[in-house]
Amino acid sequence: MIHTTELKEAMRMSTKIQAQREVLLSIRDLHVWYELRRFGFSHIGYVKAVDGVSFEMAQGETVAVVGESGCGKSSLMKTILGINIPTRGELIFEGKNLSKLAGSDLRDYRFDIGYVQQDPYGALPPFMSVQQILEEPLLVSGVKDKEKRMERIHKTMTEVKLHPVEDFLHKFPHMLSGGQQQRVVIARAMILEPKMIVADEPVSMLDASVRVEILKLLRSLQEQHRLSVIYITHDLSTVKYFSERIFVMYAGNLVEKAETRRLLTNPLHPYTLALLAATSDPDAGNADDFKEVPPGEPPSLVNPPKGCRFHPRCAKAIAGLCDEKEPVDFEPEPGHFVACWLYQKESP
Amino acid sequence: MSLVATQELLKIENLVLHFKTTKGVVQAVDGVDFELGTNRAVVILGESGCGKTSLSKALLRLLPRNVDKYSGKVLLQGTDVMELDEEEYRQNVRWVSMSLVPQAAMNSLNPVLKVGEQVAEPAILHLGLSKDEALGLVYKMFQHVGVPLDFVERYPFELSGGMRQRVALAMALVTSPSLIVLDEPTSALDLLTQANIMNVLKRIKHELGTSFILITHDIATSSELADEVAIMYAGQIVETGDAKDFFPAPLHPYAQMLMASVPRLRSDADPIFINGQPPSLMNPPTGCRFAARCPFRFEKCSEEPPVFRKGNRKVKCWLHN
Ligand SMILES: Nc1ncnc2c1ncn2[C@@H]1O[C@H](COP(=O)(O)OP(=O)(O)OP(=O)(O)O)[C@@H](O)[C@H]1O
Ligand SMILES: Nc1ncnc2c1ncn2[C@@H]1O[C@H](COP(=O)(O)OP(=O)(O)OP(=O)(O)O)[C@@H](O)[C@H]1O
Ligand code: SF4
Ligand code: SF4
Ligand SMILES: [Mg+2]
Ligand SMILES: [Mg+2]
Question: Which of A68, A93, A287, A302 fits a disulfide with B190 by CB distance 3.0 to 4.6 angstroms?
Answer without folding.
Answer: A68
